[in-house]
Design goal:
The complex is a heterodimer of chains A (549) and B (439). With 549 residues, chain A is mainly alpha-helical. Helices cover 50% and strands 5% of the residues of chain A. In chain A, the strands form four sheets. In chain A, strands 1-2 form a two-stranded antiparallel ribbon. The longest helix of chain A has 16 residues, at 296-311. Chain B has a domain at 57-199 and 259-389: Alkaline Phosphatase, subunit A, CATH 3.40.720. Chain B is globular, with a radius of gyration of 22 Å. The chains are: A mainly alpha (549), B alpha/beta (439).
Chain lengths: 549, 439
C-alpha cells in the first residue's frame, strides 16, 4: 500500500506542469528532485522519525518523551509545519545555530584573542535577532577589535592558526566560496581548471595585510599593513614567469592600489606603540564584496552548506569542490535556492524553514522493501541519508535522554573554567557538573581536529569506548529522581518502562518485538536497576542513537 | 632462514641510484647476475623501466623503531675505529663474515645473518623540525598535500583499515591518544592509536567477571537494535560506526596487550629492562595478535654533547631489545612475515664537537632492516674511510620507501593514491627500490 501511495505522489508531480506547484519554494524543490530521481523514492518519514530529525536539526537536541507523545497523538494535519515554526522560534534555536555556525566558520580552531563565551554570545545574539547571514559574516570580517561589540570577529579572521595569511586564504576560500584552492598556492590547480594561482593571490592580497597587535591594555586589535604594490608570484612549474596581482576577489575586478604618499598613508597615525591604521584596507573590500547580494558564490556556498546540514549531502559535493567539472547534482535546485536566499536578504531562518518543509527533507531514511539499498545513489535524495550528530548535538541528546539536561543548563556556567579535556580524560578531574565543561568533554572526544571541516563521519574506537565506559556516562546512568534510570526504576509496569526508554533515548515508540525484548530482560533479571542501566547503555551505543536519520 | 641469506660484501655492488629514476628497479635475476659480474653500473641504466616485479613481497606486518633525535652511525652500524672521527669504541666481527659493527652492539652482532643494513643513506634535512616528518613520509615530492607517515601508508596500501584490532599502533614515551596527523591526506581513519608508555587508551576497561554478563547484555541490546536499524537503510555510516565497537571489544578481549604491567619479568629482562625494551616486547605481542604496523619511538638521541656516554647507554638498550625482538620473531615463525625497520631522521657528524658531541649529519648515515621480504646479512653501500661521506652510491629515504613497499608486496610503480581524484605516487618517483635488499 505504501508503494502505491508513493507511485500516486510521483504521478501527481509528473502530471502537474512546472510552475503550477510553484506556490511554495519547497514544493518546487521537491518537484525538481523527484523529476531527476531515476527510480522509486522512499515514503514520508513517520511522525516520530520526522520529529527527532527536525528537533536535532533546529534545536540541536532530542524531543522529550512528552513532546514526542504529544506530537504522535496530534491529529492536526498541519502539525509538522507547526513543529518547524515552534522550533525555529524556540529558545534552543539561537544556541543550536551558534554551535553550528561556529563549527562552519571556525572549524574547531580555538584561540586566545576572543573568549569562547564572547564568541558564542555574539553568534547566539545574531541568531536571536535573525541577523542576515551576509551581514553576520561581513561584520565579523570587518571587525577590528576597537569596538567591543564586534571584537568576536577577530576570532574568525586571525585566531587559532589563521594568524597565518595562507591558512586564512585557504580556509575562507573553502568556507565562503566552496573552493579548495590549496593547490593553487604553488601553481594553477593540476586537475581543476577553474582554480587558478592568480585567484589564490588575488584573495591572498585581500587577506594578508591583516595582523593582530595588542595595545597597552593587551587588547587585541586588527591593523592592516600599508599596501604599496601588487603581490608577485610564480608557478613552481614556471619559476621564470613572474606574475603580479592586486587585491581581487575571485571573479571580481582587481582593486586599484592607491599611490602612497609618505605621511598621508594613515587614517589613524601610529601611536602608543601601535602601527598606523592605513586608509586603504583590503580586508574591508573583502568583507563588502564577499557579502554583497550581487556576489553569487557567497550565497551559493551558504545555501549548499545549509542544504548539506539538513539533507546529509551537498548539492555541490564535496562541499569544497565547486567548479565547472564538478557540477551540482541538481543545478536548478541550487540556483533557485540561491536566488531566493538573496531575495530574502540572506535570512537563514527562512531558508531552514523552506528546506525543512520540503518532502525531500521529510522523506523516510528507510527504503521501500522491494528496493535494494545498494541501488540507491545518495545524490538522488530518494531516501533520507543518515548523518552523524555533531559533538554538541550528541552532548545535548545524551544529557536530554538520560535526564540531565535541565540540571546542567541550570548550573552556573563556568566562564573562566580551567576544565580541560586532557585533564579530564586522564583522570585528573571529576566528571563535569556544568554545561560548559560537559561540552569540553564531548567536543574533545567527538569533534574533528582543528582546521578540518566537519563534513564527514569519522567514527573511532575512542568514541565507542567513551560511550561504553566513560565515567561521565556511568554517572549519568545513576538513578536519582530526575534522571531516566531513576524514573524507570520507579515504574512497575514493564510495558510502560519499555515505552519510556524508547521515547527518551530514540524518540519513538518501541515495536512489539522491542517491547517483548525489554519485558524479557526485566523479568529475567533480579537486579532491576542493573537491567535498566544495561538496556539504556546498549541503546546509547547504537547507530540509531548516534545518527540523525 | 640462514640458507637463504645472501651477503653483500662492502663495496662490491656499486649502483648509481639517485640519478636513475625508476631504473634501479631491477628484477632479482639481474641483481644476481650483477653480483656475479660485480660491475653493474653500466648495465643498470640500460634496463627497461618498470619490469613487473619478479619477487613477491612476503612481509605482512611491520615493526618500525624510530630513534628520535638521531642515533650515530659511527657508534652503531658503521664504526670507523682508529680513525680521526672514529671515537673511542671498537668494531667487532659479526655472524656475517667480513662484516663488523660497533662493539656497543654485541647481541646484534650475533644476529647480523638475519638482518641487513644500509650504510649509505643521504637525505635532505639537517634539522629535526624539518626532517622528522618528511623522513617518515618517505620525503615525497612536494605537491602541496600532507603525505601519510609510513604506518598510515602501509595500513592503507595493505587494506587493513577495518581490522578488528587497531591496525596502526604507536608505542611512545609520554602521553597517548589518537594521532590522526600521521595519516595526512588519507584521512584520520588511517591515523595511529598511540599508547603513552604502552598504556591503554582512555576508557578501555576490562570488565570484572561479575560485570561480564552485563557487558554482554549491553552488546546484545546494541546488536539487535543495529541490525533492525540497518534494514533498508543506506548503511555506510552505521557500518563504520558499528565497526568501532568491534575494535573496542577486541581491545578489551586482548587487554593484556595494552597493559604494560602484565609483561612477564623474564621477558622484560631479556629485552634489557629498558623502556625501549618493554615497548618492543609489547610491540612483539601486538604483532603476534595481528596488528599490522607497530611503531616504537625512543627519544633523546640528539647527542650534541657527551655523545659517547649517551650512545654507550642508548645503543646498548637498542642492541639488547632489537636482538631479543629478532630472536622472538624467529622462534615464533613470524620473522619471515614481519619487516623490522630501525631508523632516525638523519645520522650524526663524524666531526666531534667541543662538547664531545656529534651534530646532525644527513650526508651519510645508516639504517637497519630485516625480516619479511628483505635479504638477510646484507650490507648496502659504503662510506669513505673517515666516514665523512658516501664512497659510492647513496640512497634517499625514497629508496627505502620503495624497498619497504616492495617487501610488503606493494609495487610503487603500479599503485598510487587517489586523493579525491588527484593521483599521487605512493613513494617518491625519482627513486626506486634497492632491489639487492629484497628477498
Amino acid at each position: 500500500m505504501q508503494s502505491q501511495r508513493i507511485l500516486t505522489v510521483v504521478m501527481l508531480y509528473l502530471l502537474v506542469p512546472g510552475g503550477a506547484w510553484g506556490q511554495t519554494l519547497s514544493a518546487e524543490i521537491d518537484r525538481l528532485i523527484v523529476a531527476q530521481a531515476g527510480g522509486t523514492i522512499a515514503g514520508p518519514a513517520s511522525d516520530a522519525e520526522f520529529l527527532r530529525r527536525v528537533t536535532l536539526d533546529l534545536a540541536g537536541t532530542l524531543p522529550t518523551p512528552d513532546e514526542t507523545r504529544k506530537f504522535l497523538s496530534d491529529v492536526n494535519p498541519d502539525k509538522r509545519t507547526q513543529a518547524i515554526d515552534r522550533l525555529l522560534n524556540g529558545t534552543d534555536y539561537p544556541r543550536r545555530m551558534a554551535e553550528l555556525s561556529s563549527v562552519i566558520l571556525l572549524e574547531r580552531r580555538d584561540g586566545q584573542l576572543v573568549s569562547d563565551a564572547g564568541w558564542q554570545t555574539y553568534l547566539r545574539e545574531s541568531f536571536t535577532t535573525n541577523k542576515p547571514w551576509n551581514l553576520l559574516v561581513r561584520d565579523l570580517l570587518a571587525a577590528d577589535g576597537v569596538d567591543e561589540k564586534t571584537r568576536a570577529g577577530l576570532r574568525l579572521m586571525c585566531d587559532g592558526g589563521r594568524g597565518d595569511p595562507h591558512v586564512r586564504t585557504q580556509d575562507f576560500a573553502r568556507i565562503f566560496l566552496g573552493r579548495n584552492i590549496q593547490c593553487a598556492q604553488c601553481h594553477d590547480h593540476p586537475t581543476v581548471s577553474d582554480y587558478l594561482q592568480q585567484d589564490y593571490f588575488g584573495l591572498f592580497a585581500l587577506l594578508s595585510p591583516s595582523a593582530v597587535h595588542r595595545n597597552k591594555q593587551q587588547q587585541p586589535l586588527l591593523i592592516e599593513t600599508v599596501v604599496r604594490e601588487k603581490l608577485t608570484f610564480q608557478s613552481v612549474f614556471k619559476p621564470e614567469n613572474k606574475q603580479s596581482i592586486g587585491p581581487r576577489i575571485p571573479g571580481g575586478s582587481e582593486a586599484e592600489i592607491p599611490v602612497v604618499v609618505a605621511g598621508q598613508e594613515f587614517a589613524v597615525p601610529p601611536q602608543d606603540g601601535l602601527p598606523g591604521r592605513p586608509k586603504f584596507q583590503p580586508r574591508l573590500l573583502w568583507a563588502e564584496q564577499l557579502t554583497a547580494p550581487t556576489y553569487r558564490p557567497f550565497a551559493r556556498t551558504a545555501v549548499n552548506r545549509f542544504w548539506f546540514e539538513l539533507m546529509g549531502r551537498g548539492l555541490v559535493h564535496p562541499l569544497d569542490q565547486d567548479h565547472s567539472a564538478n557540477p551540482p547534482s541538481h543545478p536548478q535546485v541550487l540556483d533557485r535556492l540561491t536566488d531566493e536566499f538573496i531575495a530574502h536578504n540572506f535570512d537563514v531562518r527562512w531558508l531552514l524553514r523552506e528546506l525543512a518543509l520540503s518532502a525531500t527533507y521529510q522523506r523516510s531514511s528507510q527504503l521501500p522493501d522491494e528496493l535494494p539499498a545498494a541501488s540507491v545513489v545518495p545524490s538522488s535524495y530518494r531516501v533520507a541519508l543518515p548523518r552523524p550528530l555533531a559533538a554538541e548535538q550528541l552532548a545535548q541528546a545524551t544529557a536530554q535522554a538520560l535526564g540531565h539536561r535541565t540540571r546542567l543548563n541550570a548550573a552556573s556556567p563556568a566562564q573562566d573554567s580551567n576544565f580541560t579535556y586532557k585533564d579530564y580524560i586522564n583522570g585528573r578531574l571529576p566528571p563535569p557538573e556544568n554545561w560548559h565543561d560537559v561540552l569540553v568533554v564531548f567536543v574533545g572526544t567527538f569533534a574533528h581536529p582543528a582546521g578540518q571541516a566537519e563534513v564527514d563521519f569519522r567514527p573511532s574506537v575512542e568514541h565507542a569506548l567513551f560511550l561504553e565506559n566513560d565515567r561521565l556516562i556511568a554517572a549519568w546512568l545513576q538513578p536519582t529522581e530526575a534522571t531516566l534510570t531513576g524514573r524507570l526504576q520507579a515504574m512497575t509496569d514493564h510495558a510502560v518502562v519499555a515505552e519510556e526508554i524508547y521515547l527518551a533515548l530514540l524518540a519513538r515508540l518501541p515495536q512489539d518485538a522491542e517491547r517483548a525484548e525489554i519485558n524479557e530482560i526485566l523479568q529475567s533479571q533480579s537486579d532491576r536497576l542493573a537491567a535498566i542501566q544495561d538496556i539504556c547503555a546498549g541503546i546509547l551505543s547504537s547507530a540509531e542513537f548516534r545518527l540523525n536519520h | 632462514m640462514r640458507g637463504r641469506s645472501l651477503t653483500f660484501i662492502e663495496g662490491e655492488v656499486n649502483i648509481p641510484s639517485t640519478n636513475c629514476a625508476g631504473r634501479n628497479d631491477w628484477n632479482r635475476r639481474d641483481v644476481l647476475q650483477s653480483l656475479v659480474k660485480a660491475s653493474v653500473a653500466t648495465v643498470a641504466c640500460g634496463l627497461p623501466r618498470a619490469l613487473p616485479a619478479e619477487t613477491k613481497g612476503r612481509a605482512k606486518r611491520v615493526v618500525c623503531i624510530w630513534l628520535d633525535g638521531a642515533m650515530s652511525q659511527l657508534e652503531s652500524w658503521d664504526p670507523k675505529p682508529g680513525t680521526e672521527f672514529g671515537g673511542p669504541f671498537q668494531a667487532i666481527p659479526t655472524s656475517v663474515p667480513g662484516l663488523s659493527i660497533s662493539e656497543l652492539m654485541p647481541r646484534m652482532a650475533q644476529q647480523m645473518h638475519r638482518f641487513s643494513i644500509i650504510r649509505s643513506m643521504h637525505t635532505q634535512y639537517e634539522d629535526h623540525s624539518r626532517g622528522v616528518i618528511p623522513i617518515q613520509q618517505g620525503d615525497p615530492k612536494n605537491r602541496g598535500v600532507t603525505y601519510p607517515l609510513l604506518g598510515s601508508a602501509v595500513v592503507k596500501l595493505l587494506g587493513k583499515e577495518d581490522s578488528d584490532l587497531p591496525p596502526y599502533i604507536h608505542i611512545k614515551p609520554g602521553s597517548g591518544g589518537f594521532m590522526f596527523q600521521d595519516a595526512g591526506f588519507l584521512g584520520p581513519k588511517y591515523g595511529a592509536l598511540a599508547l603513552g608508555d604502552g598504556k591503554a587508551p582512555p576508557n578501555l576497561v576490562v570488565p570484572q567477571d561479575e560485570f561480564k554478563a552485563r557487558v554482554d547484555r549491553r552488546r546484545q541490546m546494541r546488536d539487535r537494535l543495529n541490525s533492525r536499524f540497518d534494514q533498508q537503510r543506506l548503511t555506510d555510516s552505521s557500518a563504520a560506526y558499528n565497526q568501532t565497537y568491534r575494535v573496542a571489544e577486541q581491545m578489551a578481549r586482548h587487554a593484556e596487550l595494552f597493559d604494560p604491567s602484565r609483561l612477564r619479568p623474564d621477558d622484560v629482562a631479556r629485552y634489557g629492562g629498558s623502556q625501549l625494551g618493554r615497548h618492543l616486547l609489547q610491540a612483539r605481542q601486538l604483532i603476534e595478535a595481528g596488528v599490522t604496523f607497530v611503531k616504537v619511538t625512543m627519544f633523546h638521541w640528539d647527542t650534541h654533547g657527551d655523545n659517547f656516554n649517551c650512545h654507550l647507554d642508548g645503543v646498548s638498550q637498542v642492541d639488547q631489545a632489537l636482538a631479543a625482538l629478532v630472536d622472538d620473531l624467529v622462534v615464533r615463525g613470524l620473522y619471515e612475515e614481519t619487516l623490522v625497520l630501525i631508523l632516525s631522521e638523519f645520522g650524526r657528524t663524524p666531526k666531534i664537537n667541543a662538547r664531545v658531541g656529534r651534530d646532525h649529519w644527513p650526508e651519510c648515515w645508516s639504517l637497519g632492516m630485516g625480516g619479511g621480504g628483505v635479504q638477510s646479512g646484507g650490507v648496502i653501500g659504503k662510506t669513505n674511510d673517515l666516514g665523512t661521506f658516501n664512497a659510492h652510491e647513496e640512497y634517499d629515504i625514497g629508496h627505502v620507501y620503495h624497498t619497504v613497499f616492495r617487501a610488503l608486496g606493494i609495487d610503487p610503480l603500479l599503485e598510487e593514491y587517489d586523493n579525491g581524484g588527484q593521483p599521487l605516487p605512493i613513494a617518491n618517483e625519482k627513486c626506486g627500490a634497492i632491489t639487492q635488499l629484497l628477498a
